[in-house]
Specification:
Strand content: 15-25%
Low-confidence stretches: none
Number of strands: 14
CATH superfamily of the largest domain: Vaccinia Virus protein VP39
Helix content: 40-55%
CATH topology of the largest domain: Rossmann fold
Strand order of the largest sheet: 3-2-1-4-5-7-6-8-11
CATH architecture of the largest domain: 3-Layer(aba) Sandwich
Shape: globular
Length: 572
């Protein structure tokens, strides 16, 4: 996959020449983004402008508006957008004295989809501030000189331009850019693993597949997934992409991108995927997501809790604590799996792997996923990969169509060292997964064997009995206190729990591991719970033999001598 990035000097040039001292640094992205989208559309329509305009003038009074739209799209060469105004951005600069009126005419010349996108960008407020500060002409003049043609910047690199604008803006305002887009190297890894077992299926003639992202940000995962399938697997495959995004600006960018690239822009929808699922009842072949980490779902609590009571609802398996909705996103995606098979890739932090004791919502969700044999693989990523966090993260791969040799098993891949430093750090992103790393991780996954970076366990390996161990309460004279039934009364201060693997006998474990240390203890079987957790650190722990005692003693003596020498110098 091509990682070359476009030149974005124009962003800084327009910032310095036009926007500086009027807009805050944190506002630059908000101002630039809609104008960049307009300029991209302007460049795409350049050689079709005259034909669209003439067609509009010829048909506007002869056909109904709803029938005029497809005629104008055809006049625009099949693009999903057009502009019937006599102006383009460059043309607007020829009449600086009428710039505000003419720019309004230009914007109203776009089709409804584009005008809707500009509303989500809140362009009217931006224009009002530019007009108030006599900067509208300078802004249009500056952006109209930028070459954003397809020949100069392809769709892949146009995504980088949008993401760089967001990153610059959010870096200045201390907001989390990573909530809006995911680094390309991480997306590439998700895609490589997601489609690694699908290549033969996707090569079939006439194949049609759907790809969905419930928190799509600027749409990078969707567009790169389609690009990978068409370029690396089957250029004739029909791939339809769908996404939902709650952030208005990110939604506007994602919808703009689909509109410009000829996709069905209606497949990107705005709203909260939990409380306002825009694709209710829909199923998808492939799903990818990098939902926000550790974000509260408190404002949707009533809605989600009500749905969790419905056996046919998305959240019936359990609810995580309200401070972290990551496992809700996972359940939402699972609810959209096709009965005949889907594959899911989702990024999380470490919390969904092990947070919550047996019986908790988190544990019950893990139990539901693993016992249904949906968890295929988890890849531990290097730290410092994301723009907004340096923590370790993980990719879960989930499917309801495991290959025969993978059934009943889970593969864990430790890829924390599969990276090299970035040439230039961007926020917290200091490391990058390069092509050689991507290829090796994909190879490890498809080989499905064990080595120092790959472990394979049966599903039940991750389950355990959480057993409550009680000890009797004693009187001052050292006698056991009886309860109302004449049985030893449990001392709640001494109560403890033991996690016993599912593949071990509880009584044998208790007799061998507990009784020798607390002979008067017993198990309260009524409190026994089954839990599930995935402890990556434990599975890949490498024992390091301590240094010989003589070597340690020598280091201590050397350190003492150094301290004494320093004290002599300080004290004279």
């Amino acid at each position: 996959m091509n990682d070359s990035k476009p030149v974005i000097d124009f962003i800084f040039r327009i910032t310095n020449e036009v926007l500086w001292n009027t807009f805050k640094k944190s506002e630059i992205g908000d101002v630039m983004l809609p104008f960049v989208v307009l300029r991209r559309m302007d460049c795409r329509l350049a050689d079709k402008k005259e034909n669209v305009r003439n067609t509009y003038l010829n048909f506007k009074d002869k056909v109904n508006p709803d029938k005029l739209d497809p005629i104008l799209r055809k006049a625009a060469g099949g693009l999903q957008f057009y502009n019937t105004s006599k102006y383009d951005l460059k043309g607007l600069t020829q009449e600086p004295q009428n710039i505000e009126i003419n720019f309004s005419n230009y914007l109203n010349g776009f089709n409804v989809d584009v005008r809707d996108i500009m509303e989500y960008f809140q362009l009217d407020k931006i224009i009002a501030r530019l007009v108030k500060n006599n900067l509208l002409f300078q802004m249009i003049d500056g952006i109209s000189s930028v070459d954003l043609s397809l020949e100069n910047i392809d769709n892949h690199n146009m995504g980088y331009v949008f993401e760089e604008l967001i990153r610059i803006s959010n870096e200045q305002s201390n907001e989390t850019a990573g909530e809006h887009f995911t680094p390309r190297d991480v997306i590439h890894l998700m895609i490589r693993i997601l489609f690694s077992t699908e290549k033969e299926t996707l090569k079939q003639p006439g194949v049609i597949r759907t790809v969905y992202d419930l928190a799509c940000g600027t749409g990078g995962m969707l567009t790169l997934s389609k690009k990978y399938i068409l370029e690396e697997i089957n250029q004739k495959a029909e791939i339809k992409i769908f996404g939902q995004e709650i952030n208005e600006q990110s939604f506007a960018i994602a919808k703009s991108d689909l509109l410009i690239t000829g996709e069905d822009a209606d497949n990107i929808r705005h709203g909260n995927s939990f409380s306002d699922d825009k694709f209710q009842g829909r199923r998808f072949n492939y799903m990818l997501a990098n939902p926000p980490y550790g974000v509260s779902w408190k404002k949707d609590e009533s809605f989600i809790k009500n749905e969790s009571l419905n056996p046919a609802g998305r959240f019936y398996a359990g609810l995580p604590r309200s401070s972290d909705g990551q496992l809700l996103f996972l359940q939402h995606m699972i609810s959209k799996m096709e009965p005949n098979g889907s594959r899911i890739a989702v990024v999380t932090n470490g919390s969904p792997l092990f947070t919550g004791d047996a019986g908790s919502g988190e544990s019950e969700i893990r139990k539901w996923i693993i016992t249904n044999d949906w968890l295929d693989c988890i890849v531990a990523l290097p730290k410092d990969l994301f723009y907004n966090t340096g923590i370790y993260t993980y990719i879960w791969f989930i499917t309801n169509k495991k290959e025969a040799h993978r059934k009943g098993k889970v593969q864990l891949i430790n890829a924390v060292d599969f990276c090299r430093p970035e040439k230039k750090s961007l926020g917290n992103k200091r490391n990058k997964i390069y092509e050689d790393h991507l290829a090796e991780i994909e190879r490890i996954h498809t080989a499905f064997g064990e080595n120092e970076n790959s472990k394979i366990y049966p599903n039940e390996y991750f389950g355990y009995y959480q057993v409550t161990i009680e000890q009797p309460e004693y009187t001052e004279k050292g006698k056991i206190k009886p309860d109302k039934n004449g049985q030893p009364k449990a001392d709640s201060r001494k109560r403890d729990t033991e996690n016993i693997p599912l593949n071990e006998d509880i009584n044998t474990y208790f007799a061998e591991e507990v009784k020798p240390h607390v002979p008067d203890a017993w198990i309260d079987y009524d409190k026994t719970r089954i839990g599930y957790e995935i402890n990556f650190t434990r599975y890949f722990y490498k024992y390091q033999k301590p240094a010989p005692s003589a070597e340690i003693k020598s280091e201590i003596i050397s350190l003492e001598n150094t301290i004494q020498e320093l004290l002599k110098k300080v004290l004279g």
